[in-house]
Amino acid sequence: MPLNIGTQNQGGYFSQPFLSDRLRTVAQPIFRLRQFCEPREAVGRNRGDKFLFDKIKNVQTQGGPLAETSPIPATVFTVNQGQVTMTEYGNSVTYTGKLDELSQFGLPSLVEEALRNDMVKTLEAAAGAEFTGTEYTAVCTGTGVTFTTNGTPGATAASNLTGAHVRQIVDWMKIRNVPRWDGLNYICVTSVVARSGLFSDTAAGGWVDVSKYTPEYASNVVNGEVGTYYGTRFIEETGFLSNSIGTGGQYGQALFFGGDSVYEAVAVPEEIRIKVSTDYGRDLGIAWYAILGFKRVWDYAADGEQHIVFVTSQ
To answer: Does residue 181 surpass a pLDDT of 60?
Structure first.
């Protein structure tokens, strides 16, 4: 049913006498993951719904010392191919011409704001599903970390994220040659509870709050960045990662990753569309719409490589 003046909670409240001129909206979560999808390939229209990208593996035989009279040996490398499937996303709100005419507020702007909030949540969830679908998982168990490479957490979280856990996770990524996101640092997107655990860990000496960044770092701050620690930039988000995992549901999730983590391919960027009015202007509506897709760059089973670690629990 479209928004209409005859149903109070579907628009009728907009035309009540002595109505306050201040509108209240439901608080919106803060999303941070989609900004790290790279490189946001602009595929464009009329090129199909598939976007392919190549991944070069290491050479099959490593080089070594040569005898003076021997020829240099030859080897090969293999190329794997990844694929992003772009799909349609969207949502709409319809309303009557009567409600639009009698409402004390500009209805199109209110509908557009609600749809933009929905758009952010929808696309962030789609991007987040690729990040959390990684095969690399880490579970904080006391002072240690249990790692797995099959996508299934190997234990139940018994602790929140601490400085010791961060160091173990970052070292684990370094050993596996995960590239730094900006050439210097990894990225960690944390839930509120996970970040709180790290912040309250007095052993985590070396934390640098974002307010104390040097000019070089301050000029490159990303949305939601709260600080750095052990070669990792921390970003807090409130809309996707869980704050209630592990023993007693007391702990929070986090994502650590480097460069080349998740691709975003775009045929039609998200946009607001106005419905073509019918019934002589009495049937109105607004929608958001996009054709795009997200995909993890690396598949550990096929490539022997992954650049994302999901801190979670059984």
So the answer is: yes
| Residue 46, both tokens | 């009329």
Per-residue DSSP letters for 172-236?
A: HHHHTTPPPSSSS-EEEEE-HHHHHHHHT-TT-TT-EEGGG--HHHHTTPPTTEEEEETTEEEEE
What is the C-alpha R_g of the chain? Answer: 25
Q: Which DSSP symbol is given to 37?
A: -
CA count, 13 A, side-chain hemisphere, 307: 21
Three-class SS of 131-170:
HHCCCEEEEEECCEEEEECCCCCCCCCCCCCCHHHHHHHH
| Rounded to 5°, angle at Cα 30 from 28 and 32 | 150
Q: What's the count of helices (H) and strands (E) in the chain, helices before strands?
A: 6, 14
Q: What is the pLDDT of residue 53?
A: 82
Neighbours of 87 (CB within 10 A): 13
The residue ranking higher by pLDDT, 161 or 216, is 161
